[in-house]
Amino acid sequence: MPKLAVFDFDSTLMDGETIDFLAKPLGLEEQVASITERAMEGELDFFKSLVARVALLEGLEKTKVDAICEDLPMMPGAFKVVQGLKERGYTVICFSGGFRNATAPAAIALGLDADFSNFLHSEKGILTGQVGGEMMYSDAKGDMIVRMQKLLGVSREDTLVVGDGANDLSMFAHADTRIAFCARPVLKEAATHCVDEKDLTQILDIVDSI
Fold it and tell me: Average pLDDT of 61-66?
C-alpha cells in the first residue's frame, strides 16, 4: 500500500523560521519573530500574520533572499529521516507556510518528492512586500493533504504528518500518525506522538513501532 509522509518546513525540517532569517539583514528580526511566535501558538490568524510579516521585507534584494535561503540550517536528522522514510515506502513531501525560495533548494538537497509553499513577489529584483500561494491560510495544509491522498491513493491510516505549530493542525486532522516535533502546546494536544528534542531520526523509531 502507498504511504505518505508530510513535513512542515520551518522549525521542523529546517532549524529555524525562514522569515526570521530574511528579516535579519533589515534589522527587523525581533519584530518579525514576535509575530511568528504568536501565529505558531495560534494567537494570531495565520494569513494576517503572514501578510504582516512579509510586508516588512519590502525592499530586500531577491538575490540576497535566495542566498540566505540556500544556506538555511537543516534540522539534525533531516537527511536521515527523509532517506529512512523513503526506504520504508513513503512518499515524502513538505508543506510550508513559508516560501519557495527556501523549500525548493531544500527539497533537492533532502531528496523530497515535492514541496508546496508560497511565493514572495518581486519587481526588478526587489521584494515588494507581497506574497501569494496556496499555503497562506490556516486550513491550507489540510486541504492540500486531502488532495495528495486522493492523487496518490493513500489512506489516512497510511499517512504520517510532522509539524510544530498551529498552522499544522489542519493537516493533523487527516492523518492517523501525528507527530508534534518540538511543538507548541496547541499542536501537542492533537498529536499521537511527541518528539521534544531536535532529532528527527526519532521519527523512524516511531514509524517502526506502529
Answer: 96
- Distance CA(150)–CA(114), nearest Å, equals 16
- Could you report the per-residue pLDDT of 119-173, keeping only the tens digit for each? 999 999 999 999 999 899 989 999 999 999 999 999 999 999 999 988 899 999 9
Confidence of residue 39 (pLDDT cuts 50, 70, 90): confident
Nearest-angstrom CA–CA distance, 90 and 87:
7
Q: Tell me the domains of the chain and their CATH numbers.
A: 3-209 (3.40.50.1000)
Phi, psi of 30 (to 5 degrees): -65, -40
C-alpha dihedral sign at 148, 53, 181, 86: positive
Q: Which residues lie below 8 Å from residue 62, measured CB to CB, with a gap of 6+?
A: 120, 122, 125, 126, 127
- Could you give the residue numbers annotated as active site? 8, 10
Q: Which of 71, 90, 70, 68 is nearest to 81 (CA)?
A: 90
Contact 170, 5 (CB under 8 A): no
- Given a contact cutoff of 8 angstroms between Cβ atoms, the answer to whether 55 and 129 are in contact is yes
For 189, the grid coordinates are: 494536544
Please say whether the beta carbons of 107 and 115 come within 8 A: yes
Distance separating alpha carbons of residues 13 and 67, to the nearest angstrom: 18
d(CA 110, CA 139): 26
pLDDT at 42: 73
- How many other C-beta atoms can be found within 10 angstroms of the C-beta atom of residue 76? 14
Residue 114 identity: A
